[in-house]
Amino acid sequence: MHLDLSRHINDTLARLGVGPDATLVAAVSGGADSMAMLAALSREPTLGKRTIVGHVDHALRPESAAEARFVAEACARWNIPFHLKRLTPAASPAGNLADRLRRERYAFLLGLVPPDGVLLTAHHADDQATTMLMRLIEGAALPGLAGIRERRDNIVRPLLAFTHDALVAWLREQGLSWCEDPSNAHLEKFRNRVRLRVLPRLEKERPGVAPRMARIAERLRQDDEALREMARDRLAQARFARHWVEIPLEGQTHPAVLRRMVEEVLRRHWPACAGAPLSDDVARVFELKRRVNLPGRLTLRACADLLVIEDSTGENSGGENSGRGGSLAQNIMGKNVHHASAGRKLSYQVEVAAPGTHELPRGEVRIDSLPATPMLLRPWQPGDRLAKSSRKVADELASRKLAPWRRTAWPVLARGPEVVAVAVAADAPDADKADFVFKDVLFTGLFGLK
C-alpha cells in the first residue's frame, strides 16, 4: 500500500502548531502502532534529528525486558536517543494499578519534554473509535464524545487518521517488525471488549467505521471549542473576588454556553472543584429561580441578567484569581479604598471628603450631601446604631425589607464610632429623594430570589 507516513506526521505537526525545531519525544512501547510512528520519524531527516524516544517497562510480564531491548536496538540503528524507565509496581501503594502506572508513565515521558517540545503518542483511529463508544455507553456529553484530542497542551497524537490494520500493513511493506502485547487480548478489560467485540461488528455492518468516527470526533471537538470560545467571550466582563464571581449577561445565554461558563470559572477560580460532573440544573439555573449546588460547596444563582457563583465555605482553592479582585476591584485601585474578604462578608473602608459617587467592592454609592467631613464609608456591623435616633442599624435594614443575604456588607456613613446614615437601595421606591444611595451590582438582579 502507498502510505507516506512521514509526510503525514510532518504535515500534522505543522497544522497543530508544533514548531519546526521543537523536540519530539516519542512514546514507544514496541507495539505495531508506536513502531510505525518511530520508523516514520526516523525516515524523515527533519523529524528524526529532533526525535528522542521514551520507553517505560511496566515490569508486569516476563517479556517486558526483552521489549525494552527491542526498542533500544531500533533506536540505536536509527541513531535516535533512547531513555528507559523501569517501574516497580509491586512497591507501589495500594489502589488502582492501571491508573498508578499510567500516571507514572506520563510523569516520566513528560519529564523528557523540554519547554519547546511535545510528547508524541501512537493513538490511532481504532483507539479513537473505542474511546468514543466507551464514553457513549457511559453517558458522556459532547466534550467526552469528542474523544482523544489530536493535541492537548504538549501531547500530540499524529496517527489518529489511521487504523491499526493500516499501520500494520505499512510496517510489513517496509519489512519492519514489532512486539505483540498479549494483555491487549484480555477480555476482562472493558476497553478490550469494546475494541475486540463491538468495533469489529460495527466494521462488518459499515466498513470504514473507525476512520469515520475519527472524523466525527474532530468535528465534535471543533463544536465544543466553539462553544467554549463563546463562553470565554461571555466571561470577559466577569468580576472575580476572593469568595465570589459575578458575571453580567446581556440577552439570553444558551444552556450549552452557560454550562461551559461555569466550568471555565471553576477552572480559573476554584481549580480543586474543576472537572467534577455538573448537575443538569446548572444549565437551567435561570429557569429554576433558585440556588443550584456546585462541586466543593459552591452555589450558583441567577436572576435577570446576572449570574453569581459563591463559595459558601469562605475558602478559595488557589485559582489564577485567588486572593485578588477581578475587573471591578482593579477599577477602584488608586482610590483610597481598602477592602478584604472574610468568609461571605466583605470588609472595606472608603474615606469620603466630598459628595459624589464612590465605588465599593460590590457596587457604588452616590452621596449628594455630607453633614460633616471627613466621613468613612464602611459596612454596617452588629451593634451599630444611628447617632441621632439610637435606632439599631440592623433594625433599620430589616424595616426596609432587605433580604438577610442582601444586607451583607451594606454600606453606612460613619464619623468615628458614630453611624450618621445608612444607604438607601437604588431600587427602593424613595431612592430618588435620598441623599445616600447604594447601587448594589452583585445583588440588584438577585433581589427577591430565595
Describe this structure in words.
There is one protein chain. By secondary structure, the chain is α+β, with helices and mostly antiparallel strands. The protein contains 14 helices and 20 strands. The chain has helices at 5-15, 32-42, 45-48, 64-77, 97-111, 125-137, 142-145, 164-174, 190-205, 209-234, 255-269, 285-288, 327-331, 393-399; strands spanning 24-27, 51-57, 82-86, 118-120, 151-152, 155-156, 239-240, 244-248, 292-294, 298-303, 306-311, 337-342, 345-352, 356-360, 363-367, 375-379, 411-415, 418-422, 424-425, 436-440. The protein has a six-stranded mixed β-sheet, with helices on both faces. It has a five-stranded antiparallel β-sheet with strand order 7-8-11-10-9. It has a five-stranded antiparallel β-sheet with strand order 12-13-16-17-18, covered by helices on one side. Helix 2 packs across helix 8, helix 6 (125-137) packs across helix 9 and helix 6 (125-137) packs across helix 10. The chain is elongated and about 95 Å long. The model is unreliable at 321-344 and 444-450 (pLDDT under 50).
What attributes characterize this protein structure?
elongated, 20% strand, 5-stranded antiparallel sheet
Offer a quick outline of the entry.
Helices cover 35% and strands 20% of the residues. It is an alpha+beta fold and 450 residues long.
Q: Structural class of the secondary structure composition?
A: alpha+beta
- The gyration radius over C-alpha positions equals 30 Å
Q: What strand line-up does the widest sheet have?
A: 3-2-1-4-6-5
Low-pLDDT segments: 321-344, 444-450
Number of strands: 20
- Proportion in helices: 25-40%
Report the span from N to C terminus: 68 Å
Into which percentage range does the β-strand content fall? 15-25%
**Averaged pLDDT:** 83
Helix count, DSSP H or I runs of 4 or more residues = 14
Principal-axis shape equals elongated
